[in-house]
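WARN no homologs supplied; continuing
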Amino acid sequence: MKQLGLNTNILDQAKRVFRQDVQLSVIKKKKATTPIVSRPQKDAIGRRTSPRQKTLGPRTECSACHNSHGKLCGKCLYIRYGENLLEAKEKESWKCPACRGICNCSRCREKKGWPPTGSIHDHAWKLGYKSVAHYLIHTRRAE
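OK structure emitted
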């Protein structure tokens, strides 16, 4: 080292600083590996949908009740009821599934004395039904 004209004290200090930086970066990496999932807050623009998850996209608007129960995102409307969001938004007299008495959310089913369905979309889809509502209607008729 002395042949290159480097001072060994400076080199030792640089090694210590490098080790400290490496240790700090390892600690920081451990903290950074914890996944942080950000969801929209309650005061964010958005509404809760059928499974009570908050979405920020377009939603339906019920002409009868005008409350949050009639505001469904396109995905929930299609999966749970087999309806298209764009068609529902075009109709000014569109009523939400709760107002029509066909809501299959856990709260409405419990009010009727029925057990909640849970997440049965995949099961209904595998059996060939268009939506959860179609599955529930056909299996209810069979009982």
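The helical segments are 8-32, 74-81, 85-90, 97-100, 106-111, 121-126, 132-142.
OK
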